[in-house]
Specification:
The structure holds 2 protein chains of 2 kinds.
Chain A: H1 7-19, E1 26-31, H2 34-39, H3 41-54, E2 61-66, E3 78-81, E4 85-87, H4 95-103, H5 129-132, H6 150-155, H7 160-168, H8 171-181, H9 193-202, E5 208-214, H10 223-230, H11 232-246, E6 248-256, H12 260-275, E7 291-297, H13 306-313, E8 337-341, H14 342-354, H15 356-360, E9 370-377, E10 383-388, H16 393-400, E11 410-415, E12 421-424, H17 434-439, E13 448-453, H18 458-472, H19 478-495, H20 501-517, H21 521-525, H22 528-536, H23 538-545, E14 560-563, H24 574-578, E15 585-586, E16 594-595, H25 605-609, E17 617-620
Parallel strand pairs in A: 1-2, 5-6, 5-8, 6-7, 9-13
Antiparallel strand pairs in A: 1-3, 3-4, 9-10, 11-12, 11-13, 14-17, 15-16
Chain B: E1 5-10, E2 13-18, H1 23-29, E3 53-58, E4 61-66, E5 77-79, H2 83-96, H3 108-116, H4 140-149, E6 154-157, E7 164-167, H5 180-184, H6 189-193, H7 204-210, H8 218-225
Parallel strand pairs in B: 1-5
Antiparallel strand pairs in B: 1-2, 3-4, 3-5, 6-7
The chains are: A alpha/beta, B alpha+beta.
Amino acid sequence: MPRLASVADLEALRERLRTAADAGRARIAVCTGTACHAYGCEAVADAFERAVAERGLAGTLAVRRTGCHGFCERGTWVAVHPEDTCYDRVDPADAGRIVDAVAAGAVAEDLVYADPVSGARIARAADIPFYRRQQRTVLGPNRWLDPGDIEDYVRGGGYAALARVLSGMRPEEVIAAVGAAGLRGRGGAGFPTGAKWEAARRAGGAPKWVVVNCDEGDPGAYMDRSLMEGNPHAVLEGLAIGAYAVGARGGVMYVRWEYPLATRNADRAIVQAREYGLLGERVLGTDFAFDVRVHRGAGAFVSGEETAMLAAIEGRPGEPSLKYVYPAERGLHGKPTVINNVETWANVPLIVERGPTWFGSLGTARSKGTKIFSLVGKVNNTGLVEVPMGMTLRELVYDVGGGIPRGRRFKALQIGGPSGGIVGEEALDTPVDFEALTAIGAMMGSGGIVVMDDTTCVVAAVRDLVAFCHDEVCGKCVPGREGMRLLRGWMDDICAGRADASVLARVPDVTEVMREASLCALCVTATNPVQTSLRYFSAEYAAHVEGRRCPAKVCPDLLEYRISAQKCDVACTACLQNCPTEGAILGRKGTRKQIDQEKCVKCGVCIEVCPTRFTAVAKFSGEPVPKAFRTVPA
Amino acid sequence: MTAATVGLEIDGRAVTVPADATVLGAAQAAGIEVPTLCWHEKVAVYGGCRLCVVEVEGRAGPRLVVACGYPVAEGLRVRTRSPRVDRTRRTILELTAPLVTDDACLKGKLRRFAEEYGADAGRFAAGAVPDPTGCTLCGLCVHTCAEVVGAQAIGFAGRGMDRQVVYFPDAGCEYRSCKKCFSVCFTGKIARESAATVFPGASIREWLAAHGVAVHSLRAFMERRR
C-alpha cells in the first residue's frame, strides 16, 4: 500500500474498500478480548475459519477476530453481522452449525444468546437487556472491527476526523470543539480536556508532547485495556488530532507491561499508520508531522499518576513530583505535555466527526458523553458497559447488569477502584456524573464498578483495597507512606478482632492528613474507601470492633465453624477427608464429627464438601449457638 | 526575566520577591519561619516531608500546599499558621516520629518542631513502624551527594514501605573527607552509625542480594548512572 498523500487519497481508499467485491460479505466476529481468551476464543475462531474453508464459503463469509464485545460473563462471544445475531458461550464444536445457519440466511436458534435472568433466547444484540440500555458510541466498533487491520478501521469511517481537522480546521477550532463538547478526562479526575489542551497550546516551549495514559491498574477494571486491544486506531486518531491541536510533534502511548495484547495492538496500529502516511512527516500530504511510540510501563500502579508517568517515560523511577505547575506547561522533558486517558482520546474523533452539539446532548449538565465501566462482582451480567452519563447506579446494576445473582440482596457498590468509594443501597439513585459521585464520597475514577451482595464483608473489602494501595504507594511522602502503613495495620486489626475503639477514633486524623498533605492523588484518594465505608457501614465496623464479630461471616478470625450433631451423618467422612489440618475435625467413620476450634484454620473446606442433603456445617460469628452445634466434650 | 518581581501577602504582610521564587523563599525573605525537614537551600525541591504546608487562597477556597514547591504569584495570599496548618503539621510530625523513636534520633529540629506543634511522638507509635531505623527518608543525603558533591553515592531503593536509603560503594565516595551527608542528616543517623563504614548494612550490594537480584551487572549499572 503506497502512502496516502492527501485527504483525497484517504477517501479514495475508503471508497475502494467499501465497494470491493468482498465488502458485502457477512462477517462472523469472534470476540478475542482478554476475557474471551480465558474461555478459549482462539480455538473458536480457528474452528470458524476451518468451517468456512471446508464449505468453500470464503467468498461470502468473513471470520474476524475482534476486540472485546463487552459481555464477558457469556464468552466466548460471537456476533454475526450485518444482522448482529449473538451467540454466547460458543464452543469450537458449534462453529459448523453456526456457519451453516449464516450461509442459509438463518439463525441457529438453539445456540443464540440465552438470557441468564429470563432464560429466553434472544438473537439480536439490540434486544438483549445487557446491550439495550447501553449507548456504545466509543466501544461500538469493537463488535465488528479487526484491530490488526487498519483498512477495516478506514472502511468504517476511520481517520475521517483527522482528515477533516487537517484539511479545514485551525488548531484553535479543534480545541474550541473539544471544549464546547464538554469532554472531561476519563482517567478519573474529570478535568476539562479542552482547557488542558488550551493550556498546552498557549504554553511556551517545544517540542510539545501528547501522551496516552494506558496504565489502568484498578483491580477489576479493564476499560482502557479493551479499547486499546480492540480499537487502537481510534486512540491513535484521537492522539493525532490532539497533537495537531496543541502543536505537538511527538506522542507516547504508555501501556502497562501487564497488557501484552494491548501493547501488541498499539504497536501494530502505529506501524500500519506510518505505512499509510497517517503518521510521520507530512501526514496526508499536509504540513502536519507527528509520530508516536509505545512505552511499556514496568508494573507500578503509581505510574498512572501524571508526573510519575512522565518520570517513567524519561527513564527515572516512576514517582510523582510536585504538580503545582501542570504538565500542560512543563511536562515530558520539561516541555508542554498533554496526558489523557485512553478513553478520553478515543472520544476525540467522535466529537470531531459528529460535532460538539451531538456530544453535549448526551449526559448531564456538567458531565457529557458516555462513560465505559467494567461492571464486575456479584451481578448477573458482568462485562464492559458503556452508558450515557446521568444513568443512575441502580439502572447500571439492575437494568444493564441484570441484578444480583442467586436471588441474593444488594449490599454495596464500589466505584472508582481503590481510590473510589464503597457506598450502600441509599446511594444507588445517584447518577453517573463527576460531581454527583464526588458528593456521595466516591468518584468516577477510571470506571471500575464492583457490586457486592450480602455475603460480602464490607470491612474486609476495604481492608483489601487498603492493602492494595499500601503495596502500591511510592513511599516518597510521609503522609502517604506512614498513613497507608497505619491504615493497613488498623484494617488488619479490625478484621482480626484485635482493634478497640481507640483505633476507630484515630482513623479520621490519619485520613485527614493524607487528604490534606499527601504528595499526589494516589494517597489522597486512597482514603476514600475507608471514609465512605465508615459513613455507609458504620454498624459493620462497630460489630467488628465492639462485638468482635463479622456479620457477613467472612473475616476468618471472627468465625467459628461448627457441625450440627443432629444433621451430621455418621457414615459420611467428607469433612474429615478434606480438612487440611491434622486433628481439627474430631470423630471418625461411624461417629458424629466435631470441630476443634483450637486447631481449625477457618478455611471453610468442610462447609463446601458437606453434602447438601446434610448441610451439617455452619458458620457462627458472635450469635448464640444452638444446642445441636455446641461441641460436646469428647 | 529574573529581574521581574511579584507582590504577595504572607500572614497579612506585603512581600515582594523575584517572580521565580517559591512561597517558602518568600516567607524566609520576610523573616517568617516555615518548618521544613526535607528542604535544603542547596538541593532541588523534593517535597516529601510535607511539613511546610501553608494555606493559600484558591478559587475553591483556601487549600493546603507545600511552601517549598509552590510558586509565588501576583496577589497570592498565604497563611503560614492557622488551626488547619498547625493540625496538619502536628499529625505529620506524629507520623514521622515513630521512624526515629530512638531518643538519640529525635533531636535537633525534629524535636523542636514536635514541641512547638504539640506532637505526641508516641501517638501512632504502637504497631506503626515494625523496625524504626532512625531514617525519615527525607532524601537530603541522597540529593546532597548527587547535587552538591556530584558523587551519586547514595540513593533510594525499594518502593513504598520497602523504601530505604542505600549506599553505592562503587560510586567514588570520599566520605572520610567529605561528610556532606553527615551534616544534612538531622536525625544524626549517618554520623552515629558511620564510625567504621558509611551506611553499614545498607549498601546496594546487600540490598540487591536481599532482593534476589544478580550483582554482576552492578558495575555496568553504575557506569550508566554516571
